[in-house]
What we know:
The complex is a heterotrimer. Chain A is built from 11 helices and no strands. By secondary structure, chain A is mostly helical. Chain A is globular. Chain B has 2 domains: about 35-115 and about 310-370, D-Maltodextrin-Binding Protein, domain 2 (3-Layer(aba) Sandwich), CATH 3.40.190; about 120-270, D-Maltodextrin-Binding Protein, domain 2 (3-Layer(aba) Sandwich), CATH 3.40.190. In chain B, strand 1, helix 2 and strand 2 (about 65-75) form a beta-alpha-beta unit.
Amino acid sequence: xxxxxxxxxxxxxxxxxxxxxxxxxxxxxxxxxxxxxxxxxxxxxxxxxxxxxxxxxxxxxxxxxxxxxxxxxxxxxxxxxxxxxxxxxxxxxxxxxxxxxxxxxxxxxxxxxxxxxxxxxxxxxxxxxxxxxxxxxxxxxxxxxxxxxxxxxxxxxxxxxxxxxxxxxxxxxxxxxxxxxxxxxxxxxxxxxxxxxxxxxxxxxxxxxxxxxxxxxxxxxxxxxxxxxxxxxxxxxxxxxxxxxxxxxxxxxxxxxxxxxxxxxxxxxxxxxxxxxx
Amino acid sequence: xxxxxxxxxxxxxxxxxxxxxxxxxxxxxxxxxxxxxxxxxxxxxxxxxxxxxxxxxxxxxxxxxxxxxxxxxxxxxxxxxxxxxxxxxxxxxxxxxxxxxxxxxxxxxxxxxxxxxxxxxxxxxxxxxxxxxxxxxxxxxxxxxxxxxxxxxxxxxxxxxxxxxxxxxxxxxxxxxxxxxxxxxxxxxxxxxxxxxxxxxxxxxxxxxxxxxxxxxxxxxxxxxxxxxxxxxxxxxxxxxxxxxxxxxxxxxxxxxxxxxxxxxxxxxxxxxxxxxxxxxxxxxxxxxxxxxxxxxxxxxxxxxxxxxxxxxxxxxxxxxxxxxxxxxxxxxxxxxxxxxxxxxxxxxxxxxxxxxxxxxxxxxxxxxxx
Amino acid sequence: xxxxxxxxxxxxxxxxxxxxxxxxxxxxxxxxxxxxxxxxxxxxxxxxxxxxxxxxxxxxxxxxxxxxxxxxxxxxxxxxxxxxxxxxxxxxxxxxxxxxxxxxxxxxxxxxxxxxxxxxxxxxxxxxxxxxxxxxxxxxxxxxxxxxxxxxxxxxxxxxxxxxxxxxxxxxxxxxxxxxxxxxxxxxxxxxxxxxxxxxxxxxxxxxxxxxxxxxxxxxxxxxxxxxxxxxxxxxxxxxxxxxxxxxxxxxxxxxxxxxxxxxxxxxxxxxxxxxxxxxxxxxxxxxxxxxxxxxxxxxxxxxx
Lengths: 278, 371, 305
């Protein structure tokens, strides 16, 4: 090999690695910033941070995030329970029946849902659901969130179904399995990791969205969960509100709440990884 | 087949885990909350009021655990909408109801000023150090119109004879709010009233087209926090924010010339003075059933030696009738604010002067149960 | 097969729900934006005046041109920022890393893809923006001041550039996923043929990249669509100022941050909410165009390899 080509090859390798590292560096920056600042808050408040109520801006304590945390957990699960089956089935429709016009149509449609600004989704659910029922509710928030996370879950399900090697697909069909059986017995097993990641992405998105909740859940600061038809609190709403105030103890609480959100997310991730191991 | 079976078992246990998590999160709070007799009062609206309400609610919640008040800062406009759609029990609004909306709901709603606030003019001129800048409505108008370009302008120097040699020959960066806000409305209304028509009436509002933006020296900040961060980070800038933000972030606050001709710093005394003098003008209704839409005229640029000129009331709007338990709870909360609220006022806010408190007392009397 | 037919029919209701949601949304968007079209016609998309007036609906004027341009600028910037690391990551994972590290890297990218958006936004606004201004924006301006888009001194850390960078970080994992998907579709024999000719890795990758050009374009289009709709992280970093940003270091607006910023008080005006819905309509249209073109390219390419 000529020196020139060898040199070019090495240079390319270095460039690829440098750019790749630059690409993932922000993740570590974010995690460390949140861990340091949020850690300080949680250590200073103690376990009360997880179940306590907010404190006054006049006090020096960051207070707790109890009702918001419970609310967020409920909203996460509820919206994924609504959104995941819908996303999964539509993805199957689009991937397994590409010859149908409807399948293609759905594909574009779901991906375009991504474009509606999340705050508008909240506002639309507000006018279509909250105003007619006469109350803010966990339901309304969960439905708004489900619509927001639908395209995200969908793309991940779609990608993992598409990434199933053609030989497996053919093998399954040649065994005489119908498409439905192929999907539920063979493909889901084959694409397990991707399908679980899709669920995780859904849960994670749902845990961190603020805008769709602004006009749908009402927002509880002092009241724990009372029922799915009643208003509910959420952590991102708390972080957003606290970040925009001038008070130090509220900023500390926002960092602490971010750390809690991060921990919930990372532990979910770990659990899912554990289950998706072959 | 074994792999499929194992796979199913995994999926099953995962589903179980999720269901368990859901059940736990659904049941624990109701165990903690327990008590079913709690009365919930819900409000939304002004973000400015949200912070003061948080201070009050946290303490009131300890005094009366059976009443829970939830409030969300969605903006005064959205707050009014949600209130009239009966999604909330009360609304927090920086501006009072417009004359038209008031006429529409006349007799069925009560409006009450609940706390006083002020808008501070803040600046960032490193050369001035601890010297305080003095400004009046005309000069501020010329700055926001883009007509005064440099800090060492003749008009600015004339108002600040003591420090005129310190003023730098630097371009003024003019900062304003980007979102529609009551703060902008009060500020522009002050410019209009105090500048002998230099600041035209059409430039008074919650969100206006800033003439200075066309010169390239104008900058918008989202919310008070946005304006604060720009002014803090940008030398030779000027902006306007709610007083609480100016105090919290240690920004330099300008002294403003009031109607009586004195240069006044915004603080609790001067804000209350403005409120008291506003009540004397006779433009303010004495009953919560009245029309408050002329209120700005009374309180902005109000007479009196001590009055800070950019002062404002924040209001809560409630129905005149509620179901008995809700009426009781709201009465309790309002009475508590009258008796103990003054002890828990945030820096940058000021308690109502006596005569205006009468409006709340009147509201408590007027609120009927039933219906 | 008959069973397949039944399965297809069983899936239809789910598809129908999605279509129904979409139709309800689009028609509500159309219905709610109708008043502004009647009030000022298509001017809402071609003018850049934003003049809310209370109690005088006739005087209200809303033009979305500035935030529309802002949306495009921010999205393109995000693409430019995320493409080099995105491509590099995909190449590194597929061509350079041993199996163990490969799955670790993929896990890291999945973590990034799912990280709650509010965390990105908070980190960017409270932390990253200041460093970006002092360590990148100011040096860029000092070196490249003669290029108009770098021609102004950054006054505040919240600018179109900041929003573009943070969006770039956020869409990068999505882009990696799309590109990886593409690389994996390329038959093994092409790679083997390259190596057997004695080509270096660089030369092989170059050939693969050339083969994948349509995939890369499609990934860019799909990511562009995703970037345009993002709300909270952008609204915390873009500076929210109504002007047409000729220079990247000035604050601006995107359609979605404009909506987030103005919706709370739009009830005080007659036409403002309607104008904001019209902005939503624009975004939806942009999304349908980018994603259908992207998907078309992707599909055509996949059948060709």
